[in-house]
Amino acid sequence: MRRYLNAIAGVLTSLVVPAALGLAQSGQTPVRVAEATLRTPHSASASGEQSKVAQVNNWTVGIAGGFFEGTFIHFAVDLAKALDDGENLRILPIVSYGGNENISDLLYMKGVDLSIAYTDTMEYYKKSGQVKNIEQRINYISELLNGEFYIYARPEIKTVKDLDGKKITLGTKGSSATTTGPIVFDRLGVHPEILYTNNTIAIEQMKTGEIDAIVTTCGKPCDFFVKLKPEPGFHFVPIDYGSKFTDFYVPCPLSHEDYPQLIEPGTRVDTLCMMAVLAVYNFSRDSDRFRRVERFIQYYFDRFERLRQPAFHPKWREVNLAAKVPGWTRYWVAEEKLAEMSRLSGGGGIDNPGSGPLSKQDALFREFMEWRQRQGRR
């Protein structure tokens, strides 16, 4: 064995040392030579595969979804399943930190052409003044879903007021809850100690008392809560709806049917809902990314009925492609596509395409949004 190892060492020495000595004369050290040898790039382009690189990227669209346990990433994956068309169009779902960060990613991150975000996140960016002309830079293609606001707490937390001074987590930084949570607590005059912890980790810390509550946003059925095993006394905390919330939110209940292992039969927990949209960057018409987004929009409207099938998230069946979202500007390509579809249907419009009826919650939300629009709320 020793002779075998010595032989290998000898071969390596005969290969590396002469090269190192020769290059050392030009000022390079043997260590740098070894590093250079190990780090020699072998990219697709360097390997003569430029055409393959162009082919793969030519019609690829990136969409920022959310974290693994949220609804947004489910919607992004659904879009890929329903719209992928080989070399003609590829949807790349991107796991992200969530709705708040999705707006930032859409503004600044390479490869992100679309994202999913709640409407209150856009309002937060507008009012903060962090981004100039954000209304012109970010548009929407369509509404998507109505998401719920969840507070899941330890037994001693009976009301939202009980969270004053307590430790709560808003999930990972950049998630939608990092916008909605502070808005809700501020309007209720509650000031918890805010932490940022992944929900899966946070639930274990709730068991030991390190954290008093998890605060998150998600469209029901929320995968995290569907799969969550009940703990004695752990429960959803109700939120009373009032005039403080009429700008972005509507009242909505959580029921035993939604989460049978977490909510007792015959009971409901009142909470808030907010609308999510499929957002798009307003690319200039002469840009390469514009043509890819344009094709995505064509596929999205033409093949939308696929998303209403049972294999996809049930909230797709409640999406109204033609619904207007107050405070947002619809991307002009989507607006033209809607007009074209309306003409082809004889001018009858395409409101709520498909056969699935709206739930009471979504009907209420739509009625509220239409009322806001009539009032000129922006």
CA radius of gyration is 26 Å
Average of the residue pLDDT scores: 82
Instruction: Characterize the main sheet.
Output: 10 strands, mixed
CATH class of the largest domain: Alpha Beta
Q: What's the overall geometry?
A: globular
> Low-confidence segments, ≥5 residues, pLDDT <50?
1-38, 352-358
CATH architecture heading of the largest domain:
3-Layer(aba) Sandwich
SSE topology string: HHHEHEHEHHEEHEHEHEEEHHH
Describe this structure in words.
With about 375 residues, this protein is an alpha/beta fold. It has 2 domains: about 1-40, no CATH class; about 55-375, D-Maltodextrin-Binding Protein, domain 2, CATH 3.40.190. About 40% of the residues lie in helices and about 15% in strands. The chain is built from 13 helices and 10 strands. It has helices spanning about 1-25, 30-40, 50-55, 70-85, 100-110, 120-130, 135, 175-190, 200-210, 225, 290-300, 330-345, 360-375; strands spanning about 60-65, 90-95, 115-120, 140-155, 165-170, 195, 215-220, 235, 250-255, 270-280. Strands 1, 2, 3, 4, 5, 6, 7, 8, 9 and 10 form a 10-stranded mixed β-sheet that branches. Mean pLDDT is about 80; it is low at about 1-40 and about 350-360.
Write the layout of secondary structure elements.
Blueprint: H1 2-24, H2 30-38, H3 50-57, E1 60-64, H4 71-83, E2 90-94, H5 99-108, E3 114-118, H6 119-128, H7 134-137, E4 138-153, E5 167-169, H8 177-188, E6 193-195, H9 199-208, E7 213-218, H10 223-226, E8 235-236, E9 250-255, E10 268-281, H11 288-302, H12 332-344, H13 360-374
Parallel strand pairs: 1-2, 1-3, 5-6, 5-7
Antiparallel strand pairs: 3-10, 4-7, 4-8, 4-10, 9-10
Helix pairs in contact: 1-2, 11-12
